[in-house]
Amino acid sequence: MLPIHINNPHGKPISTSKGFSKSVISAVCFVVVVLSILFVSARMLKTPPEEQTEKVVTLDGKPQLVSRGMSRVEEFISHSNCSLNFFLAWTTAGDKFSLRYRRTLESTLKFHPQSCLIIYSPTLTLDHFQEFWDLGYNIIVERPDVPYLISGTPAEKWYEGIEQWRKGQYFFSHITEIIRLATLYKYGGVYLDTDVIVMRELDDLHNVVGTELAGSRGESKVLNGAVLMFDKGSRFVYESMVEFNTTYRIDSWGWNGPELVTRVAGGFPPGASL
């Protein structure tokens, strides 16, 4: 190989040959390896968390795959560094999740693009919202492992009668109620029903419950669990699970739903923080 001449800043040419070529090749290989590692790391960071699962009997009495060990939700939240956690639940058929319900996700992300969205569902596919993820939003579908969610809460006692409760007309509404309460108690954040449209940022709210409007002037008549925003370990959420367990009625939809949070709030002194 012919010698290669390099300009020396001190004025004299420097000659090199194979040794220089090998150094250049080594440097190029090193750069390629580093870039490859960075590329793979970036891809891994934008890949939804893998599901580690086991089979348990869940909502409808059939075996379902659910998380084991540290749940995907906990991994997702801990690694995403989200500004706010939003939780939703969908327990009916996956093909019923229409554009109407998609608007809940879109409106939430419009005002909270850096938030985490977790949709608990035994029916939606895990990649149902992949297009949102591909756009850079933090959103996953998680199988509702109810025993795991309610572990260590007052709702555990209610769950002991799950075989009987499953026969009730309003079972799926009631189990959704437990999911929303246990999730907020365990993780903290915002729970939204899938027919709620977000119209503003919610970051300034703290330990609040939505209300139903009625009457000619839209007065607040009854609280409604369609919108709940509470800190992790909230006393109000804890008392709501106590009330759910001790006064549960299999034959009533409202008693265990909007009327539940209304009764619990009534037990707090006027002006007291929930």
Question: What can you tell me about this protein's structure?
Answer:
This protein is α/β, with parallel strands linked by helices and 274 residues long. It is built from 10 helices and 10 strands. The chain has helices at residues 18-45, 72-80, 99-111, 130-134, 146-150, 155-159, 162-165, 171-187, 235-247, 258-266; strands at residues 4-6, 14-16, 53-57, 63-67, 85-89, 116-120, 138-142, 189-192, 208-214, 219-230. The strands form 3 sheets. It has a 6-stranded mixed beta sheet, sandwiched between helices. Helix 3 (99-111) links the parallel strand 5 and strand 6. Helix 8 packs antiparallel against helix 9 (235-247) and helix 9 (235-247) packs across helix 10 (258-266). Mean pLDDT is 78; it is low at 1-17, 31-47 and 51-69.
SSE blueprint and pairings:
Layout (H helix, E strand, L loop, with lengths): L3 E3 L7 E3 L1 H28 L7 E5 L5 E5 L4 H9 L4 E5 L9 H13 L4 E5 L9 H5 L3 E5 L3 H5 L4 H5 L2 H4 L5 H17 L1 E4 L15 E7 L4 E12 L4 H13 L10 H9 L8
Parallel strand pairs: 5-6, 5-8, 6-7
Antiparallel strand pairs: 1-2, 3-4, 8-10, 9-10
Summarize the structure.
This protein has helices at 18-45, 72-80, 99-111, 130-134, 146-150, 155-159, 162-165, 171-187, 235-247, 258-266, and strands at 4-6, 14-16, 53-57, 63-67, 85-89, 116-120, 138-142, 189-192, 208-214, 219-230.
The assigned structural class equals alpha/beta
Radius of gyration: 27 Å
| Spatial gap, N to C terminus | 81 Å
Described by the principal axes of the CA atoms, the overall outline is globular
* Biggest sheet architecture: 6 strands, mixed
Tell me the strand order in the biggest sheet. 7-6-5-8-10-9
The level of helicity is 25-40%
Strand content: 15-25%
Number of strands: 10
Which runs of at least 5 residues are low in confidence (pLDDT < 50)?
1-17, 31-47, 51-69
Question: Oligomeric form of this entry?
Answer: single chain
H/E series, N to C? EEHEEHEHEHEHHHHEEEHH
Chain-averaged pLDDT: 78
Number of helices: 10
